[in-house]
Amino acid sequence: MVENMKTVEDIGTINGEKNELEYSVSIQILADSIREKLNPLLPLSSETCIYRVPEVIRRVSEAAYTPKLVSLGPFHRDNGSLGKMNVHKQMYLKTYLDWYPEIKLESCLEALRGIEGRARQCYAEFINLNSLQFVEMMLLDGFFIIVFLIKFYSPERRGSDPIFDTMWMSWVIEHDMILLENQLPIFVLEHLFNLAPNSKQGDTYPDLFDMTIQVFEGLVEKTTTPDTIDRSKVTHILDLLRACCIPLFTVESPQVDRMSKVRYSVTELHDAGIKFKAGVSGSKCLLDVKFVGGILEIQPLCIEDRTEPFFRNLIALEQFHYPNHAYVTSYAVFLDNLINTPKDAGLLIHHDIIENCLGDHKEVSRSIKNLSKAVLADGSYFSKDYAKLETYCKRRRHKWMTSLRRTYFHSPWAIISFIAAAFLIILTLIQAICSIIVL
């Protein structure tokens, strides 16, 4: 382009004067030069669903968005530290072809070549791979995911496998499979999965969606069924797991302050007399909250090593793909507002709302506290609950009654002492009144 611009300057300036023809030539050269830069750039398609996590979000917790062991898809393909898994990808491809000799490698490649264009459109940036490289990536990464899911779900099919013969590799691969930047389009996985013959004699695993949900049951509701998910709208594995967490039906956020939030921590709500209950009556949705009659019902949540990266990547996905239905983001804001200290976390753990698998209240508090940091935090999904809590806590009688119960009725002996004191006061009053009457 420098040479082109030099040409522009040479052509465009003769003795300080430009004629119309020379100026037109200069404009054309400049336009061609700019067009060369624009050619690799593609507009976002309606298929786009896999994004790079913005630096402002990634900076909060780099490890939560970066694969540790295996690259899936094109974004981390050139990461040398992940290249060691390529041999495992090749082994899993061979394993699948050995399971189903009817499947020909050439047929797989032809099938993937047919959906290459659509698959490329799923990524929010230009993928600098030629057609053969892109198809090979889909083949190896796709079959790696499928065979991993099958072996995880059906231990009898593992055989001698270095990934499952260790205590840590499968766990780390699960972590890598839930990262936003480490996704393959779900239709690519379905395409490969459905190449297996219909009569899968001896197979002990369900379809791709059911099996994926079962493998990640520690992160999503175990009782989720295919009937509760609109499969046609699922775009990749992370999106499938999000579908297991959000309300079954689309919930329109009420027209309220989008930044509305609960002003009180768990400890303050407890001091105001609010009781906590694990589980919401009649609901299996993780995000459901219910506040009725001074009781705040919250669905149980297990906090383990994968929980923070799981929620962070769901939130990152919503920032791009679901800005008007950012349910998980609202949930993270809700928890962030409730938990300010380890004591807050401890109260939720005490009431079985949080299952602590990290071993320390402080770690639980830290893990939850800043989930929504550096993201557009929309708390409107819980705005009605915020309003109810706010109204309840502003009523002084609730605080007085709570203080009275905790001061005088916290134990049987305290109750006996209170009754005795009250009885003594009553006797004193009666004596005083009798004395006045006698006088």
Summarize the structure.
With 439 residues, this protein is mainly alpha-helical. The chain has 20 helices and five strands. The chain folds into four domains: 37 residues; 191 residues, no CATH class; 131 residues, no CATH class; 27 residues.
| Total DSSP E strands | 5
Structural class: mainly alpha
| Overall body shape | elongated
Describe the largest sheet.
3 strands, mixed
Task: Provide a descriptive summary of the structure in words.
By secondary structure, the chain is mostly helical. 52% of the residues lie in helices and 4% in strands. The chain has 20 helices and five strands. A hairpin with a 2-residue loop joins strand 2 and strand 3. Helix 5 (105-114) packs across helix 7, helix 7 packs across helix 10 (186-193) and helix 7 (131-153) crosses helix 11. 31% of the residues are buried. The model is unreliable at 253-259 (pLDDT under 50). The chain crosses the membrane at residues 413-438. InterPro entries: DUF247_pln (IPR004158).
Write the layout of secondary structure elements.
Layout: H1 2-12, H2 20-38, H3 55-58, H4 86-99, H5 105-114, H6 116-121, H7 131-153, H8 162-165, H9 169-177, H10 186-193, H11 208-215, H12 237-245, H13 266-271, E1 275-278, E2 289-292, E3 295-298, E4 301-303, H14 307-321, H15 327-338, H16 342-350, E5 354-356, H17 361-369, H18 383-394, H19 396-408, H20 412-438
Parallel strand pairs: 1-3, 4-5
Antiparallel strand pairs: 2-3
Helix pairs in contact: 1-2, 4-7, 5-7, 7-10, 7-11, 14-15, 16-17
